């Protein structure tokens, strides 16, 4: 909005300065033909000084005048119109810059277009009445339609200026609100990315801090921790995990092997009694971003099994149906299970599995029964 107010202020200044530039050539003739040349010169000089002051103030403020100054400006414009009936000869009040007061008042009305509604209507009413008073004495040298048209000019152009100012400000407010929404969405997205990036790493650190952790499991966790450190560094740099990018099976640019993704996700979970069955998805490729979501979700499920399920066996099964272009990954454990109706899902299952996979167009479901283990199913399209 600050930029818009600065532009509007310059537009208002431009209208005032343009009016003054048109007044200057008519000054000598005005002084010559005026019945009150001194009064004419004083009024003209006052208008010029006020215009210069308004221009300087608007440039310094980088916006239009404050309401109090605009009120004084409008009052002066009305005064110039009223006093002009004494210093401007009747023949020069229509179609001549010798009678400069109407043009000056019109520029003032335009610069008041951004004021509040009551203020603006008061200013418009005052200037319009003064307009009519200024032109009424010229009825003997101009037809009625000309007088009416000139008097309505201030109403029409003043109204158009107000509509334009309100529209520009509304567009600016909408743009500011849109930028604010985009910034907030970007902040939330970055927060979401950070949570997903850190979730599995914090799980690993929590387990490593357990003094009773079996040595074999600790060794696997250290391997996983090293991989998570690489991912966190890549996240902080804003790039991809270099080890993953180099080591994964990429069959075409931007795509990655589904089997390679699942094998990477299972790295470091030998203590869970993993039984992978991935042969049926050999040759199936998916988008790299989808692959990262599947890797994170699968690893999160396995971390969840390690922390909560007490399972002795986990089967990771993948299948594909070329005729339909669909594939499915199932992670099933024989652990303690839980009641999905009463147990809230945490960040791992709730956000990293269900929500994050949904963001990538994948269907995910969690089926679990107390005492009978848990099954997590991920479904997607080969074209994904």
Strand content: 5-15%
Radius of gyration: 39 Å
Low-confidence stretches: 241-250
How widely separated are the two ends? 42 Å
* Basic shape: rod-shaped
Q: How would you portray this structure in words?
A:
- Helices cover 64% and strands 10% of the residues.
- It is of the alpha+beta class.
- The protein has 2 domains: 2-178; 241-381, Histidine kinase-like ATPase, C-terminal domain (Heat Shock Protein 90, 2-Layer Sandwich).
- It has a 5-stranded mixed sheet with strand order 2-4-5-7-6, with helices on one face. It has a two-stranded antiparallel ribbon with strand order 1-3.
- Helix 4 (67-87) runs parallel beside helix 6 (117-136).
- The model is unreliable at 241-250 (pLDDT under 50).
Task: Name the descriptors.
single chain, 384 residues, alpha+beta, Heat Shock Protein 90, 2 domains, 5-stranded mixed sheet, two-stranded antiparallel sheet, 12 helices, 64% helix
Summarize the helices and strands and which ones pair or pack.
Layout: H1 2-23, H2 27-33, H3 37-61, H4 67-87, H5 101-111, H6 117-136, H7 144-208, H8 215-237, H9 242-247, E1 255-257, H10 258-266, E2 274-277, E3 285-287, H11 288-309, E4 314-321, E5 326-333, H12 347-359, E6 363-368, E7 374-381
Parallel strand pairs: 2-4
Antiparallel strand pairs: 1-3, 4-5, 5-7, 6-7
């Amino acid at each position: 909005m600050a930029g818009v107010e600065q532009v509007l202020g310059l537009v208002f200044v431009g209208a005032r300065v343009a009016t003054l530039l048109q007044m200057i050539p008519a000054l000598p003739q005005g002084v010559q033909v005026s019945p009150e040349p001194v009064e004419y010169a004083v009024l003209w000089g006052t208008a010029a000084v006020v215009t210069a002051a308004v221009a300087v103030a608007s440039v310094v403020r980088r916006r239009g005048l404050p309401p109090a100054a605009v009120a004084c400006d409008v009052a002066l414009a009305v005064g110039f119109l009223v006093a002009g009936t004494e210093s401007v000869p009747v023949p020069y009040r229509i179609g001549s810059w010798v009678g400069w007061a109407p043009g000056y008042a019109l520029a003032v009305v335009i610069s008041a277009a951004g004021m509040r509604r009551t203020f603006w209507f008061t200013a418009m009413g005052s200037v319009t009445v003064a307009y009519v008073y200024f032109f009424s004495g010229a009825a003997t040298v101009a037809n009625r339609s000309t007088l009416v048209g000139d008097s309505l000019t201030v109403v029409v152009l003043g109204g158009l200026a107000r509509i334009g100012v309100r529209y520009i400000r509304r567009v600016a407010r909408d743009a500011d609100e849109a930028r604010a929404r985009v910034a907030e969405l970007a902040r939330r997205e970055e927060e979401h990315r950070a949570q997903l990036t850190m979730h599995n790493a914090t799980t690993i650190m929590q387990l490593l801090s357990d003094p009773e952790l079996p040595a074999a499991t600790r060794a696997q966790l250290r391997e996983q921790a090293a991989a998570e450190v690489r991912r966190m560094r890549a996240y902080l740099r804003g790039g991809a995990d270099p080890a993953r990018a180099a080591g994964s099976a990429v069959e075409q640019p931007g795509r990655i092997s589904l089997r390679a993704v699942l094998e990477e996700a299972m790295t470091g979970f030998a203590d869970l009694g993993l039984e992978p069955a991935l042969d049926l998805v050999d040759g199936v490729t998916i988008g790299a971003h989808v692959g990262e979501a599947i890797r994170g979700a699968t690893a999160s499920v396995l971390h969840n099994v390690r922390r909560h399920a007490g399972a002795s066996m986990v089967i990771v099964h993948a299948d594909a149906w070329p005729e339909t272009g669909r594939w499915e990954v199932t992670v099933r454990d024989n652990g303690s299970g839980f009641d999905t109706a009463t147990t809230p899902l945490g960040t791992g299952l709730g956000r990293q599995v269900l929500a994050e996979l949904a963001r990538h167009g994948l269907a995910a479901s969690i089926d679990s029964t107390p005492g009978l283990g848990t099954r997590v199913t991920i479904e997607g399209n080969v074209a994904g």
